[in-house]
Fold each of these.
Amino acid sequence: MVQSAVSPPIAAPVSPASAAPPASPAPRTRAGKRLSIVAPCFNEQEVLDMFFARIEADLAALGVDYEIVCVNDGSRDHTLAVLLKHHQRNPRVKVINLARNFGKETALSAGLDAATGDMIVPIDVDLQDPPELIGQFLDAWEAGADVAYGVRIDRSADSPLKRLTAQGFYKAFNRMSDVDLPYNAGDYRLMDRRVVEVIRQLPERNRFMKGLFAWVGFNQVAVPYARPERAAGTSSFRYWKLWNFALDGITSFSTAPIRVWSYVGLVAGVLAVGVAGMIVLRTLLFGRDVPGYPSLMVVILMSFGLQMLAIGSLGEYVARIYQEVKGRPLYVVMDRYGFDQAGDGA
């Protein structure tokens, strides 16, 4: 089954910075509503049993109907088999099996497309997103919030290098982008159905979900929590992958990396004119000067390096244009289990 990413135009989102918040948001109730949990999975066989044990216990205490939509993102271990075991045990566990590994952002998008709830919560199955926080998300939603997102106030479970690089990324992103990304906020959040419907209509293939969640606006509130260590298994995100992820985020929401080279070129041009004027003046006053080859090589190599950086920055954007204009589907579904639609592999 092929999922198309092409969608009709959407209405302009409401920005929290430009639109005045409602004086008294309409009261909501979870009674009679459905909560969708969306869980992307990649090589998570070791932690899935613990995940289902905890989240099902927490959901049962919330007094709300629920479904758990798990997306197997081309796992190479027994993740799919474990997911199907829990689907057979609990029909509210639904499974989407993608045809290959498309990446977490795309797997999350596939889960959002399949979720049917009035409220949707993306969550990592490694239990670093505590399921107990969903109750607080629901309370914020009933109080009028369209999005309640988790903010990690304690990241001691992460390495010092990861904490440092994460802090640097948030600062760099918010300086270069018109979208303010909440510090230490991940994908873990509760979103109202109308927010998810807007996100589903965003057509880009290079998807930085944290940025998309912030871009849509609506009434968003933060819920602080301490981020624990991973319950089991190992993370598939290594530093090189995180670096590329950061590049995707910045280039998806800012033109600063390519615009800066206009200023670099301007400064270099002014300096070149100034240096040329000095050489002409010195030649007129003191006669012909023998050129210094070491300094010449330094200038040439430095200019070459700057040119390569500029071409590389341009290439990042051209590559993304190339991906977009091909118009390929965002993901391909091989099988679906637990869904009622005909022909979905259930």
Amino acid sequence: MTDPLLSVSGLRTTFETSRGTVKAVDGVSFDVNRGETVCLVGESGSGKTVACESITRLIPTPPGEITDGRIVFDGEDVRDCSSSELREIRGDRIAYVFQNPQNALDPVYSVGRQVAESVRYHRDVSKSAARRRAVELLDRVGIPKAEVRADDYPHEFSGGMRQRVVIAMALAGEPDLLIADEPTTALDVTIEAQILELLADLQDERDMAILFVTHDLGVVAQIADRVVVLYAGKVMERGSVHDIFDHPAHPYTQALLACLPGRGASLQPIGGSMADPVSPPSGCRFHPRCPHATDDCERSGQPPLQGVTDSQHASCIFYREDRDSSVVLGADPEPIPEERQ
């Protein structure tokens, strides 16, 4: 079996605030193989974006700091890279597409010039060659009349077209890994489908891996090969997309899916509130909101990931050998006891 393209293990990233130290990412581990799509899912504040920005050390320092863990990309630990080595990886072999394309584009330069600059940053080519490559990229991502529209400015494009321009910029370095952080959240459903189809086509063409951040489980079902479920900076569950949707193992994953239309008789919101990142609960981070929690869930630390199947693991004490996994596996979501809300 070949090594994963990206292997994140025991990643911990904190932020110093006036309230104390925020444990944004706390011992997160996952792999991304060449040519596959891995989705990081969870509620807002679960640590998805911070985990992705930590991969190439994009977090602002201070107040942020990667305090522990390994981030191995194509056999090299990114944490050991010098600033110059990191610049060669960032945007070249690992590229990002963020949620708001307007923030990624300079309003005073034409989109063609901005894509061409990305090309020249990563490749030693002339301005005319970079311009030709920029037009090719804009055409490939679906910008009509790319030769003409390359001279237009960001405000002259719709939100969906601006996102296509940002994707073209990300492709300038011909990356092995594309990290897409909620790239379709601000788009309507029709445009979202077009962007997702574009990413899938580009992935097939280039054998490119995609790490996709989203809270939209409908998108996850459509594009993911594997899924990593995060809650309050911890991995609650990981497995193939079929594992996660067909037989979710962790109570948090089950609760997320119960919020998805069509998964039951009625939508069931998750009771309670997200754990305080400065002072998270002892034991399992999800136990104050979990309908199956016992005293052991509160007393022990975050349970290690236990094997549910060969391809699925959950951070839940009910999957230990001395416990009955049927209590949670396949259970219908229940209301949270009032005393724990």
Amino acid sequence: MALSYIGWVDGISASGIVIFATSFGLFFFYKSRKSKLPLLSYAGLMIIFVGWLWLGPTCDFLSVSLTGKNLDPILLYPILSYMWAAPALICASYIFTELILPKRKVIIMTFYIILSIIFELYLFLDTKNSFTFNPYKPNEDLIDVRFALGSPAFILIAINLLSVFLFALVYLYRGFQKTGILRKKYIFIAFSYIIFVLCGGIDSLTSPGVFLALIRVVGISCALFIYYGLREEPEKIEKVPIKKEIEIKESLFRIAKRPSEITEEEVSVSKEKKICLVCKGKVSGFETFICPECETFYCHKCVRALIEQENMCWACSAPIDKSKPVKPFKKEGEIDNKIPKKPKKKD
């Protein structure tokens, strides 16, 4: 028996999400390797897992199209769909801890890993009681599955969605605290999470049809938002000659000597062009350190070198790492206040 019109719309929209998410996730891996941004790899995994949440209707669509029968056994449908929710949440929480709470990464990741394991156990061992199956025309429409309200699996998936939404609110808050490119990046990531939560929630509550297909098309945009939030900025930076105070020797970066004076123009260029105040190299994305006092840009290599040498911002002299002592910089020709003792003359 042929698929109905609703079946075609449901199947094509679900298949489109799976194909797009898989392709875009692989693109994330490529860009991550090329730009050396590890978080893009985790974002790629997250996008792939999110797309595979529609693997159930996709497989059912292929089954009806090729064999004329719905997926059998029917309990395979929710398992194929929702087994990817836990790994997607783990990737999302890892990105969140890396960007927002790196010092609490172990605690937060442990919590969500345990939560994910419990969800997977209910999904595989209590599938029948975790879902309800709405009426549909066998072999004409695709299977229509909903979480059973009040079931442990439903409560756990609700906690997952609520967590992702809270992540989005934190990203928004952090974005409004920042300026320039970092503000834009945090807001992009927040929009990505919000779109996923809203579209995923509507998808799970809406019957198959044209409206559901439109919601799925909008949901695809979450992949674009998170890419723009994590990617390396392509803007062109004016080349500034590297000063003699910076040396590259045997692939090791070090600061030979701090300039006697940092001009306002150098600081302004660092902020406007997003270049490191020390080495004048391009900085972008989250591989960047910004002084919390004056918002001057540094690359991670220069910051590590500065912490070891003097632990002070070159622009405002604020401590970079407050947990370590500051070693004030003395300009050339500066006279120490202490008067050296004259050596005693021998009789």
